[in-house]
Each structure stands twice: as structure tokens, then as C-alpha cells.
Amino acid sequence: MRARNLVKEYDSGEGVLRALKGIDLAVRAGEFVAVVGPSGSGKSTLLNQLGLLDTPTEGTVTVEGTAIGGLSVAERTRLRKRTVGFVFQDFFLIPTLSAVENVKVPRLLDGDRAETHRRATELLERVGLGDRVGHLPGELSGGQKQRVAVARSLINDPGLLLADEPTGNLDRDTGSQVLAEFGRITDEGVAVVAVTHDEQVTEFADRTVELVDGELT
Ligand code: ADP
Q1: Spatial distance between the Cα atoms of 44 and 73, rounded to a whole number of angstroms
Q2: Residue 130 Cβ contacting ligand 1 at under 6 Å
Q3: d(CA 65, CA 85)
Q4: Among 45, 193, 209, which residue has the most ligand 1 atoms within 8 Å of its CB, making it the best to mutate?
Q5: pLDDT (tens digit, 0 to 9) for every residue of the chain, 217 residues total?
Q6: Which residue of 80, 83, 133, 145 could cross-link 52, Cys pair, CB 3.0 to 4.6 Å?
Q7: What's the burial of 6, exposed, middle or buried (CB within 10 Å: 0-12/13-18/19+)?
Q8: How far is the CA of 68 from the centre of ligand 1 (A)?
């Protein structure tokens, strides 16, 4: 994934706010990059750009060789589904669905159902939850919930995993289990970018960049 001269401006009531001021960032397959920065520095804005959820005011994002600049919204959505997985601070699991059903959600509308089920079960085994596939989120600990979310993020075999404060709701020990999981994922060639203000994330990352007031330092 490569971002070049990424600029994002928001039109607010009091004029234009420049949230990203020309970001250059490249992340290789298998690399784990932590983006740290204080609240308001532009971390979520950056993640939305890298995750193809929003388009930049200036600059380009290229994912697996495809530059998003010329794509329609539908093409961008297709590219995102195929290439990017997301993990959030709040897990965002559906409370009425079991662990394995949650993992399958991003793939419910496409793919072979039996194959999706097999893959979802395999992913849960991989994150150490092979004995929890039928549990509801309410029956799981915070760390287990986040590991279900990690399994879900991998269901479409993305090359890039984006994580927004992935340890924000976890204690230190549980956080380190989830971060170790990211390490195993990068061993398989997936790139991981985590935005955070948790110093612990930087201990597991290959590289840490700092975002200050919309600029990488
Ligand atoms: P962080 O995730 O590091 O807390 P954000 O990316 O959320 O930072 O915000 C960066 C800056 O952009 C902040 O000043 C914020 O107020 C502003 N901002 C974020 N989203 C919007 C929006 N949709 N409209 C206007 N301003 C926004």
C-alpha cells in the first residue's frame, strides 16, 4: 500500500480544515506499521483514506498496484472488499450472532456457503478460538471478542489489515495476545497498519511513524 502526498480537507462552518497535510507512506507485504499520534492529529482520517472508505482532496492511494484515483464508488468498494480488512476498538460484533457467524458476515452475500463456513471455522481455530465457534459475543471476554474481529477481518483474504486502536478496550496481557496475532498474520504476508496511542502496539510493530497535526514525523 502506498500513499503519496495525501491531503484531506474538511469543509467546516469556520472554513477549510486541513486534517492531512501531504502524507507519504508505503507499507510492504508482511510489514506491521504503527501510526501513533495524539487525539485530533488525523489518525482516523488517515485510516479512512488507506481503507478506501473516503477519497482524498489531493494525492493518491495505491493498494496492490491499483490507484484508487480513477475508480468509481462501486469499483472502490469492490477493491476494498477484496484487499482490506478492518479491526476496530469496539469490536463491532453482532450480539445475536455466534462467533463463527460473525466471522462470516463480510462474505454472506458472495461465495460458496459451505466453503465460507469452513474458512470461518479455520480462522477461529487459527486465532485460538476453535472451542468457541458457537459462543455469542456476550459469552466471550474482551480479548476473545477482538480475536473474533481479527478472524472476521481476514475472511476475504485481504492483503492489508487496518486496525483502529485495536487494544483500546483491552488490558495489557490481553492486548499483547491480540498484537501477537497481528505478528502471525504478517508472517503470512499480510500488511498491518494500526493507529493508536497505546505504546504497547509500538513494541510489536516493525516500524512506528508519528502523526502530528496532519503530518508524519
Ligand atoms: P484522530 O483520529 O487522530 O483523533 P481525526 O482524524 O478524527 O483525528 O481528526 C483530525 C482533524 O480533522 C480534527 O481536527 C477533527 O476535528 C477534524 N475532522 C475529522 N473528521 C471531520 C469531519 N467529518 N468534518 C470536519 N472535520 C473533521
Answers
A1: 20
A2: no
A3: 17
A4: 45
A5: 999 999 999 998 889 999 999 999 999 999 999 999 999 999 999 999 999 999 999 999 999 888 888 889 999 999 998 899 999 999 999 999 999 999 999 998 887 999 999 999 999 999 999 999 999 999 999 999 999 999 999 999 999 999 999 999 999 999 999 999 999 999 999 999 999 988 999 999 999 999 999 999 8
A6: 80
A7: buried
A8: 22
The one-letter amino acid code at 91 reads F
Ligand 1 within 6 A of 44 CB?
A: yes
Burial code (b: 16+ CB inside 10 Å, e: under 16) for 101-125 equals bbbbebbeeeeeeeebbebbbebbe
Q: Which atom of ligand 1 is nearest to the CA of 20?
A: 10
Question: Domains along the chain?
Answer: 30-55+70-216 (3.40.50.300)
Instruction: Report residue 202 as a C-alpha cell.
Output: 509500538
| 155 CA to centre of ligand 1 in angstroms | 30
Does the Cβ of 129 fall within 6 Å of ligand 1?
no
Residue 52 CA to residue 159 CA, distance in Å, equals 13
Residue from 205, 214, 124 nearest 167 by CA: 205
Closest ligand 1 atom to residue 11 Cα is: 25
Instruction: Please tell me the distance between residue 122's alpha carbon and the centre of ligand 1 in angstroms.
Output: 37
